[in-house]
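Good morning C.,

I know you're traveling, so I'll keep this short. The sequence:
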Amino acid sequence: MTETMTFTPPDFLEGIIVLHGAMRRDVDRLQLALDAVTTTEDATALQRWFVKFAREVEHHHLREDDVVWPMLLAQEPSFGEPLDGLEEDHHALDVAMGNTRDALARLVVDPSTRAEAVAIAGALADLLHGHLDREEAVMFPAMARVFTVESFATLEAELLKATPKRLIAFELPFAFDGLPAERAAEELATLPAIIRVLHRWFWQPAYERLTAPLAAVA
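The tokens, ready to paste straight into the viewer:
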């Protein structure tokens, strides 16, 4: 019998783990929020939020496609074996998010399509959960072997520098949402002062307004 070993991700992967957790959390909250829709205003508010959420997921995947996975493949050729499946997942997620966008657009016009929207969002949730489970099972061990604390910190800094401010404005409070206040404060303290100021006075308040439909059903 083969013994299954438990893999413990290194601390430097904590940021990715938090983002993945936020994706799982909100794709589940979307279904609950959709089920609670009773007015056009409710549907419009969810549609506005989903634009930001989908953009965050797509950008996260692009960073993997264009930067992280090529680096892993260059140093761990065996990563190529599961890579095709992960790339297929990304394509399938693009389609599922497009379907959800369309369902939300229909719901804004016709509240009677709510059950259809909930089902479509459920399909997206199943796909996203499954993809993240598969990805973490193969990508995290590979990253633990390829990166050091220092090299991964350099990569994160480069990725942050290349991320548009409009995406950081959503991603930061999105990642911190639900974290204990003390832990969120510790993470925030590691960021540049300008980012901390923007987060406190602009990004966090805007995020709270945007996610009000999700918070109402949490």
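Safe travels,
E.
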